[in-house]
Amino acid sequence: MSGKYKNRANQTDGTKKRTDKGRPGAPQRGGQKNPPARTVTDPAHSVDGWLRRSTARLKQAKLSYDNGLQEPQWEAEYLLAHAMGMDLEQLERHKTQQVGPDQAAYMEALLQQRIEQRKPVNYITGEAWFAGHRFVVDERVLIPRSRIENVLDDPDGLLGLMEGARPLKRMLDLCTGSGCLAITAALHYPWLQVDAVDLSADALAVAAENVKRHRVTERVRLVRSNLFEKLTGACYDLILTNPPYVPTRIYAGLAAEYHREPKMALEAGGDGLDLVIPILQQAAEYLEPGGILLCEVGDDTQEIMEQRWPDLPVYWLQFHFEASGVFAVTREQLLDWDGL
After folding, report:
1. How far is CA 53 from the centre of its chain?
2. Where are the transmembrane segments (predicted)?
């Protein structure tokens, strides 16, 4: 296993936050298609005017942006682009354009959902961008966000992680949710065969739509299973998972936006380890010799694990934003460890 990502001191945030990437880098679309340019007669009704007012309203509402786009200005831009049928680059180029009455009414409706209902912006638009790819999302699935995205975005990526271990041919994504990790891996590595597992039939329905949208139906197999239960006899070079890991006490205090997401995708018992422990116990049985388990647990649960198991034989991946919360461990290390 490559040491490229390992051993970074943790910071605590306690939730499944987006990485540190900020707003999506790819275009977002919605609303009216290819809107005509209008001459501005009132700067207050221009794109720029709407962005200023919308940003101010979002700030005043004291919302949480941690499972959204991180900043009220970015959410205002995203919602207005959606309402006007533009992408973000088009919106930037048309700051003086007039926002028409229908577009203004639509934008007002979007803002009311965000402010009054505390509905996350990605549920409002029905889409989320992850690792440069667009995914369909709704309240049946967690909004795509994972620090594992940083591994997938790295030029070496999963191959760098597997260096010195074994060839990467078959992968398992446990707790797949929307399917964003499984699909992104399949898109990055066109030879890779992926099994994507979730207990939630609702989540798998969303994942199926995303698998079809990204045309990876021949290489991403969706399986309804409680972790490894339905995978008897299967073996993988890599098991990748972003399971529920938020401790109950922390989940109870999360912002309203988090409580719009499926509880089963976030909350994981008193210490956040309700799924992590069985994954550690069972993963070796489903890994090929030299295979690797890559698991996200967040900062708080990392701290809990380090205190509970000082001899836990894992590498905490090193990220550029001064945090970890993701560990890698080989099949052989799991077999040799008797901490559970």
Report:
1. 29
2. none
